[in-house]
């Protein structure tokens, strides 16, 4: 139990004094902050806590909020957070989630695949003993190297490699700059850039940067799924759609339970698939306002199995496939099958793209799925050693969901 005392700044006169049970708010690491008429008590934690957190051993960590004028209790909740909370406007970031300043309720997001309301979350997958700093639009923290989360567009986790942020607070956003102070000298951690780095705010060229979307929620049943084949990372489009890279980004640099972070799914591809990539910056592709989708692809794949539903479910989907002549398209002719049925014969990428080499999409409605969607690209040239197939994108929209008979 602690006594909380409020003094008038000008005179030092006591305005109110109340005892409160602040168990779980940090003990000897008790922190206090003020925001919008509210006085917050929480733990000033900054330690290697991924192990206890994943075991559920931090459920006791609590935030208590008082009304600053009267000292009355507004709310007090155990919130299972890893590091010192960060307050931005009416939101408290309680790693790896965020809650409402007024109520302590966990804030939600719409899952980009299932459409369900799930906890908003971010992740610090790498080694770290620092806290989170923030602006109204971003979070900054150490995760081995520097980590950035765009909270405004909810794009995912981006890493700024080569620099070692400090063990407390060395990524400082202020006046349009992000200052990453040199923090590796005297430390046994080995980093290639032993220097201070300062980034300035400027208009984004193109759409955004590649990221890894963070969510531990279930990915089935699928309501909407957008896949960007061959992309180096995930990208949220201007319309809000999250385009997931496939193959999924390799995220083995995490530690402990976070050694393979990000949304995961497997398409069980058949053939001799090969990733093809080009830099999309400065590129224009006729027929699309998303050139980054059509500057990477999966080449040589003949079959994909897309997990969409649980075993007791069946649904109908609209299937959109996207193609472009990213590489030499001559001879890339194949049939397209969905669920074992041919829906398009002798599809010729070069002929469909025309002289402008434009992006081409083909849409198929009412595709019935139980469990998985099977997509086959069957070359018309049966003698080809490497299947002359190329696919850039797959987008699925659920039309109807029902229990299987």
UniProtKB/TrEMBL annotation:
Domain Malectin: start-end pairs: 225-378
Residue ranges of coiled coil: none
One Pfam family matching this protein: Malectin
Name of the protein this chain belongs to: Malectin domain-containing protein
Taxonomic lineage of the native organism: unclassified sequences, metagenomes, ecological metagenomes
């Amino acid at each position: 139990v602690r006594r909380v005392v409020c003094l008038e700044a000008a005179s030092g006169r006591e305005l109110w004094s109340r005892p409160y049970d602040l168990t779980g708010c940090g003990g000897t690491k008790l922190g206090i902050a003020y925001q919008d008429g509210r006085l917050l008590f929480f733990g000033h934690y900054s330690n290697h806590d991924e192990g206890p957190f994943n075991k559920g051993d931090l459920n006791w960590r609590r935030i208590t909020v008082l009304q600053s004028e009267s000292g009355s209790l507004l709310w007090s909740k155990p919130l299972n957070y890893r590091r010192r909370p960060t307050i931005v406007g009416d939101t408290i970031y309680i790693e790896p989630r965020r809650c409402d300043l007024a109520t302590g309720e966990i804030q939600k997001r719409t899952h980009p695949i299932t459409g369900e309301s799930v906890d908003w979350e971010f992740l610090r997958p790498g080694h770290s003993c620092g806290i989170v700093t923030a602006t109204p639009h971003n979070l900054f923290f150490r995760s081995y190297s520097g980590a950035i989360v765009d909270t405004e567009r909810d794009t995912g986790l981006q890493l700024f490699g080569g620099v070692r942020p400090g063990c407390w607070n060395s990524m400082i956003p202020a006046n349009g700059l992000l200052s990453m102070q040199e923090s590796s000298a005297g430390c046994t951690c080995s980093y290639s850039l032993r220097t201070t780095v300062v980034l300035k705010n400027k208009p984004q060229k193109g759409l955004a940067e590649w990221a890894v979307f963070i969510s531990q929620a279930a990915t089935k049943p699928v309501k909407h799924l957008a896949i960007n084949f061959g992309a180096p990372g995930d990208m949220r489009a201007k319309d809000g759609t999250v385009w997931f890279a496939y193959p999924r980004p390799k995220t083995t640099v995490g530690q402990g339970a976070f050694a393979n972070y990000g949304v995961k799914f497997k398409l069980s591809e058949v053939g001799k698939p090969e990733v093809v990539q080009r830099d999309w910056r400065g590129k224009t592709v006729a027929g699309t306002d998303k050139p980054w989708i059509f500057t990477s692809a999966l080449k040589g794949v003949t079959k994909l199995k897309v997990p969409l539903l649980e075993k007791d479910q069946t649904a109908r989907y609209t299937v959109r496939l996207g193609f472009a002549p990213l590489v030499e398209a001559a001879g890339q002719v194949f049939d397209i099958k969905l669920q074992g049925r041919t829906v398009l014969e002798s599809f010729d990428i070069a002929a469909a793209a025309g002289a402008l080499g434009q992006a081409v999409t083909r849409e198929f409605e009412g595709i019935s799925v139980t469990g998985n969607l099977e997509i086959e690209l069957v070359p018309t040239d049966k003698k080809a050693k490497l299947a002359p197939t190329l696919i850039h994108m797959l987008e699925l929209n659920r039309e109807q969901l029902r229990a299987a008979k």
